[in-house]
């Protein structure tokens, strides 16, 4: 590569190659990009398009746009990612490209005198005529942004790109080209899950494209190549063909309606625009048919309720997974017949045990089960508080027992209180260890003491 790059020293091509990682990361088109391909396209292919592209590349946006249009129009889809990234970088140059711009300008000025890089020619992308003073053109009902041949100043009217309605020179509605941007494709790809994981979001994107942009065959090809993998595209086309046949189209006519190569459908008339629209609709219908995929029951059976998850939220999670990975409808009888046992068996432990004790729980409707589960869920706080109170009482009682075991020789009310607990070999009278009260030497003394107290009490003088 070193010798190849040195030939184009100081050119935009060398700048792109020297910053290849940044170039390659600009967008993801679902295909690997390589330097050799960029060199080939830039030095061999694009200079032959007749739009003034130099072999070393250019940072002139009009020329880049002209090459981009030719690539799209003629169906050079292998070249599309490279020129699309080049156009995006030229329109919004990052710092590294701005540093290369001065070198590129010097290299372009060093070319052969008298051969300007951009020969004098009409604007390659003139806006649609909107001035009332211009003559009407009844033979051209469709207005497009043309590609201008820089050498011959000839206009190619067969550009096939997204179309939008606008007011023509006679006041009638006509169509103009409004292209997809690299950022649009990039955002659609990275803001949605892959088509294999969940076909619904990208199907909705394509459905919006068809209704809002009037895409052509080439636009659909670009979007499919960018947003879907090769295997996903094969599946979509297969389903699209099935859908056409199921809709009454003769199998022999399907290849004509879903061509694999760029068709000869110039959109200068309504009939050909209808072909483009029919093609786009068939692709969308094929994507919709992919949504009904082989059921993945493992996804459903692997769901478990979290400890702090509301039972209603858990059931909603079951329903969403059922919709996504199976053909069942959670709202109909068959769907609920499957989901109710799963709700009971995959709930959290305390809720599951209570629900399983209910007679005929599987035959109850989900509303009743949810009501019971919510009561159990709400009572958890009260049970936790009660459990905490019991543990605290047991802890306090244990501390009090230890204090009674270490107290010796104490009598009276404290001796008889609930908080005083005797040790295994502790005497209840003297509180000494090693004997019980029947063997206590102070037993008789205590009995005498009691009688003396009674005697003194009997003979106490009331005066």
UniProtKB/TrEMBL annotation:
Q: Does the keyword Nucleotide-binding apply?
A: no
Q: Name one GO biological process term.
A: virion assembly
Domain (CCHC-type): give its ranges. 426-442
Keywords in alphabetical order, please: Host cell membrane, Host membrane, Membrane
Instruction: Reply yes or no: does the keyword Zinc apply.
Output: no
In this chain, the stretch annotated as Disordered covers 399-420, 441-463
Instruction: Please state where this protein is localized.
Output: Host cell membrane
List the residue ranges forming a coiled coil, or say none: none
List GO molecular-function terms, semicolon-separated. nucleic acid binding; zinc ion binding
Where primarily located?
A: host cell
Output the SUPFAM superfamilies linked to this UniProt entry: Retroviral matrix proteins, Retrovirus capsid protein, N-terminal core domain, Retrovirus zinc finger-like domains
Q: Which InterPro entries match?
A: G_retro_matrix, G_retro_matrix_sf, Gag_P30, Retrov_capsid_N, Retroviral_Gag-Pol_poly, Retrovr_matrix, Znf_CCHC, Znf_CCHC_sf
Q: Which PANTHER family has this protein been placed in?
A: GAG_P30 DOMAIN-CONTAINING PROTEIN
Q: How is this protein named in the record?
A: CCHC-type domain-containing protein
């Amino acid at each position: 590569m070193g010798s190849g790059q040195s030939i184009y020293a100081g050119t935009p091509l060398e700048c792109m190659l020297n910053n290849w990682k940044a170039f390659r990361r600009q967008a993801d088109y679902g295909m690997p990009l390589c330097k050799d391909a960029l060199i080939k396209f830039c030095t061999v292919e694009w200079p032959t398009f007749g739009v003034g592209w130099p072999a070393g590349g250019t940072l002139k946006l009009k020329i880049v746009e002209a090459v981009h249009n030719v690539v799209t129009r003629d169906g050079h889809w292998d070249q599309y990612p490279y020129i699309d990234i080049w156009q995006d970088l030229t329109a919004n140059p990052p710092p590294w490209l701005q540093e290369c711009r001065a070198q590129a300008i010097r290299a372009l000025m060093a070319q052969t005198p008298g051969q300007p890089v951009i020969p004098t020619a009409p604007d390659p992308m003139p806006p649609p005529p909107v001035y009332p003073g211009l003559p009407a053109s009844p033979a051209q009902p469709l207005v497009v942004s043309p590609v201008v041949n820089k050498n011959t100043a000839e206009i190619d009217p067969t550009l096939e790109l997204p179309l939008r309605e606008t007011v023509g020179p006679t006041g009638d509605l006509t169509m103009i080209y409004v292209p997809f941007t690299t950022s649009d494709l990039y955002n659609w790809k990275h803001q949605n899950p892959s088509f294999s994981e969940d076909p619904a979001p990208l199907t909705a994107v394509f459905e919006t494209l068809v209704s809002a942009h009037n895409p052509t065959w080439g636009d659909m090809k670009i979007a499919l190549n960018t947003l879907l993998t090769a295997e996903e595209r094969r599946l979509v086309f297969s389903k699209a063909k099935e859908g056409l046949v199921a809709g009454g189209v003769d199998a022999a006519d399907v290849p004509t309606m879903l061509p694999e190569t760029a068709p000869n459908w110039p959109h200068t008339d309504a009939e050909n625009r209808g072909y483009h629209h029919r093609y786009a609709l068939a692709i969308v219908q094929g994507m919709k048919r992919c949504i009904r995929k082989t059921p993945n029951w493992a996804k459903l059976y692997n769901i478990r309720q979290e400890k702090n998850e509301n039972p209603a939220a858990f059931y909603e999670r079951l329903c969403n997974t059922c919709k996504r990975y199976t053909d069942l409808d959670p709202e109909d009888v068959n769907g609920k017949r499957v989901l109710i046992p799963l709700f009971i068996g995959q709930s959290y432990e305390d809720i599951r045990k209570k629900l399983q004790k209910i007679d005929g729980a599987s035959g109850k409707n989900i509303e009743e089960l949810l009501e019971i589960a919510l009561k159990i869920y709400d009572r958890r706080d009260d049970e936790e508080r009660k459990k905490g109170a019991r543990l605290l009482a047991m802890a306090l009682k244990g501390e009090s027992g230890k204090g009674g075991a270490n107290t010796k020789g104490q009598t009276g009310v404290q001796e008889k209180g609930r908080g005083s607990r005797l040790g295994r070999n502790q005497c209840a009278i003297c509180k000494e260890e090693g004997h019980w009260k029947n063997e206590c030497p102070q037993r008789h003394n205590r009995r005498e003491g009691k009688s003396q107290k009674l005697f003194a009490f009997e003979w106490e003088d009331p005066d």
